[in-house]
Amino acid sequence: MADEPKETKPGFQNPVAGFSVTFKAMFKKRLTEQYPEQQKTTAPRFHGRHQLNRHPDGLEKCVGCELCAWACPADAIYVEGADNTDEERYSPGERYGRVYQINYARCILCGLCIEACPTRALTMTNEFELADSSRANLIYTKEQLLAGLEEGMVDSPHAIYPGMDEQDYYRGLVTEAAPGTERQAAGSKGEKPEEEGADA
Ligand code: SF4
Ligand code: SF4
């Protein structure tokens, strides 16, 4: 049975009651975060900005297969593959990703693309500061997404490790660039024509 409404004295209002919420809040622990000066650490598997990974010698893992683009529910990825040549080799196998773009105006950071990638070329970092006032700036290019060079790596394009093949790379037999490896002239590496770009 519902409680009957309490009777109040006509014309009486408690002047302190209105401040009860204020007083309670004054003694609570502050939730304000001093962002961006103090940044909160994300969970280890937080889905942030993507990264295109390299093999230990610096060659790229992406083979330009477009599976990530097909898996994306937001149509946020644009990939254009091309053939490697002996004069200009970006990945150990036959193909590489010549053009790679992710449109962060569309991406919902769901991670389906990284699940679809057969070579673990595509993973996600913990970086979350992706906001921008320009839609064009939210389209990240291959150059922005490609992982930096670590010790023992030489930037692509360059020759495959002597005596190794693509399978050896995936077996983990190549652990660094071969001595004397030099970067080849990068003639075809670059942005795709604007009219073919991912929609902003
Ligand atoms: S995280 Fe999701 S929405 Fe973003 S590019 Fe990958 S599949 Fe598309
Ligand atoms: S990132 Fe992975 S799935 Fe996407 S094109 Fe490259 S190899 Fe294929």
- Oligomeric organization of the protein chains: single chain
**End-to-end distance, in Å?**
59 Å
CATH fold description of one domain: Alpha-Beta Plaits
Q: Could you describe the largest sheet, including whether it forms a barrel?
A: 3 strands, antiparallel
Count of DSSP H/I helices:
5
Instruction: State the secondary-structure class.
Output: alpha+beta
Total number of beta strands = 5
CATH architecture of one domain: 2-Layer Sandwich
**Binned strand content:** 5-15%
The spatial strand order of the largest sheet comes to 2-3-5
Mean pLDDT: 89
| Poorly predicted runs of 5 or more residues | 190-200
Family: Belongs to the complex I 23 kDa subunit family.
GO biological process, one term: aerobic respiration
EC number: 7.1.1.-
Protein name: NADH-quinone oxidoreductase subunit I
